[in-house]
Design a protein that fits this description.
The protein has eleven helices and no strands. It is an all-alpha fold.
Length: 164
Amino acid sequence: MKIFKKLMLSMLIVCSTYSMSFGMKYGGLWHEFCEAASDGNINKIKICLEKLKDQDLRSYFIRAKDESGYTALLYATMHNHKDIIRILIEAVKEQAQKVALITDTYVNNLTALNLALIYRHPNVVIVLLEYYKQLGLEISPNLLEELKSNPDLLPILQDLGFLK
């Protein structure tokens, strides 16, 4: 639970037009949001998102990183909460922001897909691959090789058109 205490402090380093006021006004809500993503609490995630009426603020909120570089998406990824991941991605309305959410690099230059592979969460990998396909994203050759090394993922990669 130490990491969640750090989340509150991290809001001061978030960079954008919302940074300082965001941390002061929404820091507590963001802390609850990340904790809910980590715990798999769908109802709490929905309640937090409902409190954010402005779409730009909502997208910013979803993409905000703590001092360690983690977002709510990464917390959900690490803890194998595929339904939370879907909610977070769908809550971002603009395609460019969805792409950024999914492909941004975080801790140790890893994406959410990298992290799902590291934590061995195949259901999360599949959800993220579906969004890669939906958004027209390509998978790097190195990552594709890593995905192909898991025989359970080969049919999914084939069905989604990532294998040629």
